[in-house]
Amino acid sequence: MPVHNKEIADILNEVADYLEIKGKNEYRINSYRNAARTILGLSESISKMAEDEKDIQSLSDIGESMAKKIAEIARTGKLKQLEKLKKQFPGSLRDIMKLEQLGPQRTKILYEELNIESVEELKKAATEGKIKKLEGFGEKTTQNILKEIKQFSYKGGSQRFKLHEAEEIIQPMLRYLEKEIDDITIAGSYRRMKETVGDIDLVGAGKDAQKAMEHFVKYDEVQDVLSHGESRSSVRLRAGLQVDIRLVKKKSLGAAKLYFTGSKVHTVALRKMAKENNYKVNEYGIYKGKKRLAGKTEKEMYEKLGLQYIKPELRENMGEIEAAQKDKLPGLLKLKNIKGDLHTHTHATDGKNSLKEMAEAAREKGYSYFAVTEHSKKVSMAGGLDEKELEKQIREIDELNKKMKNFKIIKGIEVDILEDGTLDLPDDILKELDLVICAIHYNMKLSKKKQTRRILKAMENPYFNILAHPTGRMINKRSGYDMDMDEVMKEAADHGCYLEINSNPDRIDLNDKHIRKAREKGVKLAISTDAHSIGNLEYIKYGVAQARRGWLGKDDIINTRSWKDLKELLKR
Questions:
Q1: For residues 321 and 324, what is the distance between their CA atoms, to the nearest angstrom?
Q2: Who has greater pLDDT, 125 or 529?
Q3: Cα dihedral 133, 136, 139, 144 sign
Q4: What top-level class would CATH report for the domain 335-569?
């Protein structure tokens, strides 16, 4: 039974959390976190590498001792070290640690001073005013804790998986099921490429439904069989993900895909349309009385309703049905349209690979260009570059570009926007670059007015090109900073700046609603990965999917252009 990369990384991060509560040295704690980040950035399964610990040691930030631990997890699904740590502390402490306001150190104080062991106890203590009396907390922190507990239902409610987490879990299962089930499709929010999924819906056609269902429930990662029928079954996998499957006859496969892909509001709107035409729509097809009119394909279903085919990413009842009635749906962006990645890091700061390795990997993906954008000096924990270090990298890029044929390494930086709106590096060095990406990493709790003013001030700098991960959100962790997005987009349009769709699956920032707003305001965007390793370059697919959810086409994205045309767009 393979242990997924996410499961291994989760165990290493859990060890790090407990070590931090115990007050162990920072170097040891970071060794676990760095190894976890490396594993999450891999495009291949580390379980396949576990047969030879030397293969694991070849990875960045993983030494002999850590390789042994990873191999143990890959073989057994557990780590003895973690089991010992769990006996020393209540397991529910980790739910508290996940709160943005807290973390391991503050969790330790709450545990030792107030004996708080769960989110429920934390909420009670905060409501009663006990937490604000602790040193380093206060009234504002207490209110933010209560706000966050209320906002993020995943703390005490059902778990939602980030898209890439669900993908790693479900794709091996899909390959397993294809042996017995024809035309199997992942439907639901996964097919619509939402940032998170609560469960997985599978739709397929099987010649022998009973045999197919037996095959489904016998998958080796099934932990619980929730239901087991002739045409539908439901299981919970070891990772906690629920998977539901529905089998239909081939003549109804299109109808079933449409029905189970959703969204619910989209399908309800379709049923309302059908009713107005005296039709009935369900998971088996479109009917007029007892006569079946369509159902074999989704395209056939939409055509019978008088609609242009609506791609899954658009099915949110956000105007797509009205546009389809008029044959006015946009031509959506495709992965192959992306000419290059505009936000990446190398081991010059907190990346895992060299400049040459990253550039060669980008070229192998078929890109025409690739931008290296290290952190600036403000981000000291990531080894951010100062002026002299950046000058050195510029020279390195120039030398490497001389050896590259039909490929351009773009000289860039991810420069921090300081609290007063100035940039972390002087104009004298920024003007030497091809691209300046600006970002916020500190002072995220400013008021909406101050945060907005900070960004608008930064955009006045003539070397400002792209606002990186514009809202600062981290999926399932923090909602991002408070700012006036309308004002930011207006300023971007006025000054010739662009916003980023950050494809890192922990961010996927901007969200689809902001993307549609940018499209309406005529603000163009860049799709980048924020890659910290070669494997992270594959994240671009999540940014493209998010752009499609925001109705964007090829012309809405600046890095679908050739380098010659992109260079002109970057001129202020």
A1: 5
A2: 529
A3: negative
A4: alpha beta
